[in-house]
Each structure stands twice: as C-alpha cells, then as structure tokens.
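Handoff note, outgoing to incoming analyst
You'll be picking up this chain. Sequence as last confirmed:
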Amino acid sequence: MKAHAFTLEPSSFHLDHFQIGLGTIMFLRHIAIVTLCAAVATGATNNAAKECWSRVSATLKPIFSSDALDLCTKDLAVAAPSWWSAFSDDFKQLFNASSSFFTTGKFTTPALNAWNNSKVCQQWYVGVEDAIKKVDPPCSIAVTNATQVVTSKWNASISEFMQALDQWAAEVSQPNGVTTKAPSTTANAPSLTSSAPVTSSAPVTSSAPVATTAAPLQTPTHVDAKVIESIPSTDQFDHDYVKRRPMIGRLDTTSDMSEHEVNTERLVTKNSSMRHVEGGWPKDVDSAEQNDVQRFRKKVEKDDEYKQAVKFLGPVAERGLKQNNTINIYQDYFAHMGEPATTEQPSAKGLAVFRDPESVRRTVSKIDWHPESPQRMAACYCILNFQDPKFVNSRMPSNSYIWDVMNPNTPEVVLKPLSPLCCLRYNPKSVDQLVGGSYNGLISFFDIRKSGSSPVETSMIEHSHHDPVYDVFWISSKTGNQCCSVSTDGSMLWWDIRHLAQPTHRILLSDKDGQVLGGSSMEYNTEAGPTKYLVGTEQGVVLSVNLRNIKQNNGIVVYDTGAGKHHGPIYTIQRNPSHNKFFMTIGDWTARVWCEDLKTPIMSTTYHESYVTSGCWSPTRAGVFFVTRMDGVVDVWDFFYRQNVAAYSHKVGDVPLSAISVQGNSQSGGKLVAVGDSNGMISLLEVSDGLAIPQSNEKAAINGMFERETKREKNLEAREKEQKRKKATMDEGKVDELPSTKDEKMEELLRTVDANFLNMIKEAEDTENKNMEHKTDSMKSGDEDN
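Most recent structure output, in case you need it:
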C-alpha cells in the first residue's frame, strides 16, 4: 500500500492526498480513527474532533460502507476521552520542546528524549488493533503485522529523521548566521505519519519514514508594548495646513468600445457630349482653315467617283425640291380655332434636384434662365445673413454655376468671381455673356466663350457699391453692353461692361425728405420704356425712376408710404409680361399688384402664415404668378380663376425657399419652374398645362380686371382728397360760407362717375360678345367653304 498522508493542524483537519492499494481498503478507515484521536491530542476539543470525523466520514462515505463508518463513530465517542488522558501530557511536552527548532535549527535533547520516551505510538497502534478487532476481525492479522513493523522500526526512523533535520539546518543556514524559515515539508509541530505494508501479507522493509506531512505551527513571540515616540498636539502650524481639494475619480470596468462607420465611396457621374457642326474631314485637313478646305474640295471634285455620285443623287434631290415647292409643310390648319379650354386641376411634379457642390450650405440668391435654351439656367449662391456663423468656421465659397437641366449631377460651367454673387443675369442680346453683382459690392462681367470660369472684367472697389448688390439688369442700348445695378447702400449705378473701372452714371435713391432708401430689388422692361426703372427698397417703399425727368428729384417718384407699403423689405418687383403698366411686389406676408398711375396697390393677396421670400409672373399666362414662402411652400395664384385663395400650393421641402424663376417667354414655355432654397438646392418643377397654357380671352379679362381696380382706387383716392379738403375748410371756419348746393354737386359728380363705370363695364361685355359672335360666324363660313 502506498503512503496515505494526513495533515493535522490545530482546530482543523485537511485530507491532502490519499491513494488506495489493493487489499488495504479496510485498513484505511482505522487509520482515520487513529488520526482523529491525534487531532484531539494536538489541542482540539472533543467536540472539534467529532466534527472533524464527521467531515472525514462524509468524504469516505462514497468509498466505505455506511455501517463501518457508523461503528467508527461510536468507537471514537468511547476511545477519544481515554486516549486524551493517556498521552495529552506527552504531546504537550513534545510540542513545547520542539519549538526550539525554529530558533536553533535542531531538536534539543529534552525534545529528543520526550520523543523517544513518548508512548504515543504505542497508544496509537493499540487503539488501532482494538478498533480493527471490533469493527473488522478478518483484518486483525494485517493490523498486527503493521503494529510490529512500526514498533520495531520506530526508533531507527526517528534517529534517521533527526539526522536529516540536522543536515537540512546546516544547508539552509546563511553566512551571517541567520537561518531561513523551514520549508513546509518539515514539521513545525510533530506530524503524525501512518505507514502500512504494501500488501496485507508483506511488511514494510524501508528504514526511513514512508511519507511525512507537515503543518506549520506559528508560535508568536510575546513582546511587551512600549511607546517609541509621542508628539503632542499643537496649533503652531495651523496656518500652513492646506485642505486637500476633493477629487472625483471614475472607475469603469467595462471594456473599451469603438464605433466605426463604413460607407462605400460615392460614385460621381459626369455627362459629356460633343457637338459636330460640319461634316467629317480627313485628319490632315483643318476645317477652321479656309485654304485647306478649298484645296481639299477641289481635289475631291476632280475625282470620277464624286462625279458619278452627283449624277445619281441629282434626280433624287430634284424630286424632293419639287415636292417642297408644291406643298407647304409648315401650314397650320387649326390656327383660327384657338386653344381649347382645359378642365385639368392645377398640379406640379418634381423633375430634378440640383445641389450645391460646396460643403458649406449657401442660399440660392438668384436664378436666371437662358434666354434662348430651355435646358440651361444660371444660379448664384451667397450667404446673406449678417455675421453668419458659417463665416467664422470657414471661408465662404464664391463659386456660382450654370446648370444643364439634363445633367443635374455636375454643373456645366463654374463661375469663379472674387466675391460670392448675390445676383446674376444673362445678356438677352448675347447669350454667352453674363453680369453679376457681388457680396462686396463689385460688378463682374463673364463671357463663357473667352474666359470660361473667371470674370473678364471686374469693377474697382472704390467706385463700386459699398453694400451687397441685390439686383442687376441689362438695359436697352445699341451695343448691348450696358447694365444697371442697385444696392442697399442707396445708390443706383449704370455700367458699361467694356469699361468697368467706374460707373457711367449714378443716382442716390431718396424720398422727398432726403432720406436715403436702400434698394433690395429692381425691375427693367424695355416694353414699358427704355428709361423707366422700378426699385423695391428695404424700407418697403416702391420707387419709380424715369431718366427723362432726371431734373426733378433725380426722376424718382415715391409710391405709397402709408398703409399700402410693405412692412419689410421688398424682395421681388416685376412687371406683368402681358400688361407692362401693372407690376407686382413681394414682401412681408403678401404679394401686391400696383399700377404706375396710382401710388397705392390695387390688389393684394391674403396674409400668409409664413413670411414670403420671392415671386415671379408666369411668362405665358397674364393672371398667374408664383410666390415662395419660408415654410418651404410654393403658392400658385391664378387671378383668372379666383382672387381670394391660391389656386395651388406645392410643398417643396422643410427649409426656407429663397428664389424662383419660370422658364419661357410670351410665345412658349411656362411649364418649368426652378425653386432655390437656403441649403443651396434647386428643385426643378413642371406645372400642369392649366397653369402654363394661356386660356381663351385671358389677357383681355385680366386687363379689364386690373383697369376696374385701378378706377376704383382712383375714385377712392378722389373721395379721400375731397374729404380732406372739406375737413380743412371746416377747420378754417368757412363751412357756413359754402353754398348749400356744394354737397349736391358732389353727390351728382359721384353718381356720374358710378354711371360711367357701369357703362364702361357694359361696353366691354358687349364688345366681348360681338367678338365671340364674329369668331363663330367665321368658323361656320369656313366649314361651308370646305
């Protein structure tokens, strides 16, 4: 049987290791009984010994039978007290003597004598033999043999053990005389070692202990307490005491996490095209050189194949020419019928979105369509808010763009002025030229045929505007090189693009009291007069400038400054394309229609819930105009349909809208609407045919409505003047001197005016009916001829 080691410590019991050999399984349980008795001897109480045995029995229960364990428990209850009285004194003497080993490294003579004279071993094996006889008689022979072997070899084992301890103490001693602590394999207190034969019939022949287990017994040295140093309390250093500031620390046991976002690279697409003007030429022939072309043509004409081709194609071309001369392929058979009345509900749909390529979000300040092509439009971008935070974070980009409607991904032309453009206009006589007004007051001239992106000419800053240029127009001239600009600095300047060093003419915008008015918008239309200008101011007042009356207050006429004016800046002012005498202004929460003959508006829309920002007339329909709002909605008003509510409202986005422009002229177009917002995005809308195609007799009806409203306003104005004159007369105390017939004459005058007004309406209706009858008769006569 291999060794079974049990370590015994005071008040504790540990089963460190055990291995079981063949034929010795019953011997192990008796060793456990003796071991418990040893636990009592080492200082544990009787109850502690019982508790230790209960733990050991629980450990051994899966191996041994429960009946044997119960018998061992009963024997322990009887044997433990008697064994305690027998060898407790010997054990105590042995423990006290062996404590000197920790100071000298050797067992003293009293300790060795106590160990040799101890009858502990005899008592152990007597108890083992008695217990085995009681519990398991068949194992008594094996126990007797084990007892004899242990008794005979005990003294020799103890001597060899002490020699080993002396040798170990010599090896671990340090040169300075300090000995190291004994390892845990050497007993600080006596260790109880049980040995058994390898088999039940073969005794152990080794002279050394089979196995030794050690449990250190810490024996503290008693030292009296004494005071080493004492410092009494004092307030001498109180002023040097600095209270430590509380510090807040944070501990986080969670693992560090990192968040990553991955996005695939955006594919940027660009449309490119090639324009082929003339037929293909050989590589060595330059089509731009007339001499090369003539030389090549003469060479080809001498070729025999060319002559044969001309002879073959001549009759074919001749036949086609004769057909063209016989039939008018451009004849319009239904010109006299007019446009059919439409019942379609007004609507609009989005076609494309043009985004500002710059990372900084800029406002679309102006949009201008190409005068001849419905596929191109120019747009300028600028941040008009004073001290906008975007100026602090980064420098504002200055690029403006010319967009192709068919390619919304990339601008066709990039305009790079010195300062961001606030306004931009195409030259109606030379569509490759543009003029723009900058944020710093400069005027820039662009010719995309020459310079491409950079301006050809730029005005000098000392002779330019001192505020942003909010509007610019090309004016009528023989050469088409003159333009006019307006700014909030109160000046209106005329320029010649061939000499932009300084303006050709300057006017200071002011009222009759001399107060300077800042211009925020402008309108110029050659059909209304080459010398007439309309200016909207940031004070909400409308100005009419006529250069023919330049001597009278610089030709400036100030419109209503009372209740009829806007409550904020006028963002847009534009004449009606069909009736130039009437114009529209956009400001505060309303859009108002004016007449040049009156200083008060003749019509006005209802107040919107949101602030209006811009507007424009439809180029094809006289009674339709568009208004943009701060809440991202475009309102379409149709005065031919109704005047109190917008005909259609379209939600473009959630950001404020800033600019709007409709493509086309009086002959065509009117369906494409470009709307810009404050984020630099231009939305291209297509309105329904009902909002673009002129209605039957629409121009006459709109003109009649405007004229009636004008006369009504004139009558109200005359009545107001009369009331003011009458009030002034009464204030002077001359009321009694006035003849009694004065009131009767006034009433007679008003009745006459009302009668004339009604007669005029009746005449207009009669004329309209006669025209309709004439058209009907013409259509009938045409049908009879056919």
